[in-house]
Structures are given as structure tokens and as C-alpha cells.
Amino acid sequence: MAAWIKYATWEATQGQMERSRSVFERALDVDPHHVPLWLRYTEQELKMRNINHARNLFDRAVSILPRIDQLWYKYVHVEELLGNVSGTREIFERWMSWEPDERAWNAYISFETRYHEYENASAIWERAVTCHSEPKQWIKWAKFEEERGSLEQARKVFHMALDFFGEEGDALERAQTVFTAFAKMETRQGEYERARMIYKYALERIPRAKSEGIYTSYTRFEKQFGSIKGVEDTVTQKRRLQYEEEIEAAEGATGNYDIWFDYSRLEEESFRSLVDEGAPETMLERARSKVRDVYERAISHVPPTTEKRLWRRYIYLWLRYALFEELDAQDLERAKKIYAAAVSVVPHREFTFAKLWLSYAQFEVRRLDLPLARKILGTAIGLAPKPKLFKGYIELELALKEFDRVRTLYEKFIKWDPSSSATWVRFAELEQNLFDVDRARGIYELGIHQAEAEHGGLDMPEVLWKAYIDFEFSEREFERVDALYERLLEKTGHVKVWISYALNKMASVIALEEDEDADAEENGEEVTLSEEQRAQRASAHAQAIQDTRSLFERGYQSLREEGLKEERVVLLEAWKAFEAEHGDEASVDRVQSKMPRVTKKRRQVPGGDGAMEEYYDLVFPEEEEEQKPALKLLKMAHAWRAQQQQQQSST
């Protein structure tokens, strides 16, 4: 075709236009679909100012090649240059009937705009978005309407676009740029509330994972034009959709309640913020319904097994739900129903939750329904008794000063678990606080009898013994204290018992002196001691010191007989500290002289085939004295043997 074009062009340069046309026509007969040939042919006619010939050529070209946009562009350009506006419009209409690409439609719209035919341009836009319905086309149309000052028409365009895309998930995802452009247009016009509503409408419908762009735009909008509350609402909505997606992704997972806790906390905080702002009741009711909906959905996920580990967090959802209804929604009847439903859903034969029962009972106490609170705790103890349930029930009755009921509960508690030392101690302390010393002493004796029983016993008998001794000491029954120590030593010769018994002698004297001084101060008297009183106190101190030393000596001998070396060292250290405080240098040296020394020894390893090992041992002075005759005899034997060996070697 290049040769044909050169030939025709040469003929035209020679002024032979007829021959040039003939060459072009013959070339078109050879290949009528060669676009450059048509373009050079029309250019040649235009150069020679043969306008009608050029028009005819363009008409023939677009009829043969209607999908070649370049020919149409040239055609409309020529007609517009000639000032033939109506003819240009007709050509555009012929072109648009072939549904060309977006640029062709934009060229038609630009043509109408240049001649201020905005209504025609708007009509063309409507046809263009029907042909090419991408979001960017709708946005361009709306922007066109905005720029020409027709805001209502621009809004109408956006509404048409959103209606066109519909409410389906994929369609909404495609339309999020339309939402963003719509909101930005309202922002440019100062319609911030309209823009905010558009953003919220879109965010409520577009999935969180696919709406990052619109979220970013909304956040930027709130930071620029909104209040702190608006920004918080944006974040809240964003988190709400995120939780919904996480719940959907975790559907079917067992025991995954963390998302529900976070989601319910978010809705509760949103509700409380509305209450603080004094929002109208309609908004409060809507927020309250959201919280309830989240909790109802959460508690519908009952753990599939009777494994308590899975149920623990599930029950806390019920508790939080009930607290919300009581404290925030202030719907006490609904809270009561929630507690009752929570109690009914737990398999109490397998396990129970004391916190649930106690929370239910405390709720009824706050409602001043004490009979029902007692009934709830009684039912709990009857179904599945637990120490925490007994303690909670006892604390409730103590707060109400119902001491007879407390006694009954302690009796049931001990009957259910007689091995709990702490329960015996608390029961006795109750009687002591009620100044019923005989009952307290009787309870301690029953507890000790339980510790001595062949079947059962106590989990920590030392706790009961210590509490009993402290009780008698507080009552200043020192003879009973001594008797208890003696009874305890019959059962155990532990070094701590000996030390406590010995130090108790001096503590008794000091306690009596403090009581005398306190009585004098209560009577408003100045604490001044006479010579006789000083002498009496000095005598009591001396006797207490002597008794303490005697007990330390008894303990030392007892531990020595049992062969407990390390315990003897512990006792000597306590004895030495006592002498340093209440004795003199001679008494301290006397105790120090009993201290052992550390020596290195060797012994045969058990099962080691005669192997020996070194170890450190404590050697007490009195033991060395006892071993001296044996050591002397051993030395003499070694000397005799050495002498015999020397004589044999000399002979």
C-alpha cells in the first residue's frame, strides 16, 4: 500500500488531482480496510480544499470501518472546524450507535460542553454509563454535574449509581469508590452530616476486609471535619465490623470466647458514652439492644463437652451480661432471669461455679430479698457443696449479724469436710469474737480430737494447734498454754515446738506487764512502778529466764536422743539469741560452748563396691568427750602395732 500512496501523492503534487483520485480508488479496490490509505486520501482532498469530496470519503470510511475510532475522530473534527455543529452531532450519534469506548463518549460530551449544551451532555452521560457502567464513569458524570452547578442532579447521579450496583457483596465492593466520591462531593459543598451518613452507610454494608480505602477516607474526614466523638464512632464502627468478621471466621471453634468478650466490652462502652452524653432514649434503646444482641449470641455458644476449663469463660459471659442489665440497663427483672438461666445451664452434677451462685445471691441481697438469697445459697450447697460456697454464705450471714445461722453453717461445713483445719480455726475464732470462751475451747478440742482420729485427720494440724495456743495465750491462761505445749510435744518433738514453748515463758511475763500498764493508762493513771512492783517484775523475769533455759535444755536433750543434729543447731541458735537479749556474757558463752564444729569424714558408698566418699559432719563437744576413751585405746593399739613392725624389721 505504501507504493500506491506515494504514487497518488505524486500525482497530486503534479496538479493531477483526477489521476491522484484514480490511484487512491484503485488502491481502495485492492484493500478497502487499510486505515492509513483512507487517512492519506482524505488529507489529500482537504489539502486541495475539496471539502465535499473529503466528507464523502469520511462517510464511506466509517461505513466500511465503523470500529476504527481514528476515522470518526477525524470526521467529527473536520465537521466541527467547518462550523457544522448539527452535522457533527449527527456524526457523533452515528458513532455512538456502535457503542465505542469511553474516550469516544467523552469526546461527544466535550463537544456538547464546548457549545454549552449541558442538557445534551447530561443526556449523553446517561447513555454512556449505560454502555460503560464502571464506577469511574458514574463518578465523572457526577463531577460534571457538580462543576456545572447542578448539585441536585449530581446527587441524583450518585443515587442512580448506587441503585445500579445494588446491595450485593461484590457489587458493593465495586461501588465503594462511588461512596467515597459521593461523600467527598458533599464535603466540598460543606454538607458534613450528609458526608458522614454516606460513609457510615457504606461501612455498615461493605465487608471489613474489602473496605480499607473507604475506612481511610472516613477516618481522614473525621479528623479534619468531625469532633472527637465522631472519630471515636469511626473507630467503634471499624472495630465492630472487625469483630463480626472474626466471629464469622471462627465459627465452629470450641471455647473461643475472647472475641465475644472484646465485642461485648466495645458495645458496653459505646452505650455508656451515650448515657454520659445524655443521648435521647431512642438512641439509648438502640445501643442497649446491640449489647443484648451480642450477649445473646455469645451465650448461645454452649460448650459441647462437660470439661470445666471450657465452661469457665463461658460462665463469665453470663455474669457480665447480668451485671450490665443490673448496673447499666437497670433492668433488675431481666438480670434476675439471666442469673436463673445461667444457673440452669450449668451441669452441677459434674461441676459447679461458686462465683455464679454467690453473684446470684448477692444480687438478691442488693434487691433486699434475703429469703431468696438464702434459698439460692442453700440450693447451691445442697447440689454441689464447695468451700467457697460455705465461706460466701457465712460472710453473708456475718454481715447480717445472724450468728446462730453462722454457727449452723460452720457445723454443716465441718460435717461436710472435717479435715479442714482452717474451718475449725475460723469457727473457734467466731466464738471467741462473741466472747463465748468455753464454746471456742470446746471447738478447738473437737478439732484436736479430729486430728487424732484414726480415720480422717486434719490437712494441717499444726495450724489448729498454733491457733489453740494463741487463743489460750490471748486469754492469759498460761497454765493451759503449758499443758497444750506438753500435749503437742507428746505427739511431735519438732524443734520449732521446743523453741516456741521456751520463748513463750518470757512472752507470758511481758504480756502480763503490758496488761497492767494498759489498765493503768485506761484509768488515766500514770504508769509508775513502786520498788515492790519492780522487785516483783524482776523476780518474774528471772523465773521466766530460768524456765526458758530449762525448756531449751530439755529440747536439746530430746533432739540429741533422737540424733537430730541440724535441728539441735537451730535450737542452739535460738537459745543463743535469747541469752544475748536476756542473759549475760557467761550464759552466751555457755550456749556457744555447745555449738558443734564441722569436720570432714569419709564413708563407704552404699552399693559402691568398696568405694569411699567424703562428707561433712557436725561433731558436738559432748560427743567428743564421750568418744575420748575409745580414741585413746585406738591410739595405743596403733602405737603397739608400729612397735611390733619395727622390731620385726630390725631382726
From TrEMBL:
Keywords associated with the record: mRNA processing, mRNA splicing, Nucleus, Repeat, Spliceosome
Keyword Heme: no
Domain Pre-mRNA-splicing factor Syf1-like N-terminal HAT-repeats: from-to ranges: 2-134
Gene Ontology biological process terms, A to Z: spliceosomal complex assembly
Domain Pre-mRNA-splicing factor Syf1/CRNKL1-like C-terminal HAT-repeats positions: 388-534
Similarity comment: Belongs to the crooked-neck family.
Assembly information from the UniProt record: Associated with the spliceosome.
Protein name as catalogued: NineTeen Complex (NTC) component
Organism: Malassezia nana
Gene: CLF1
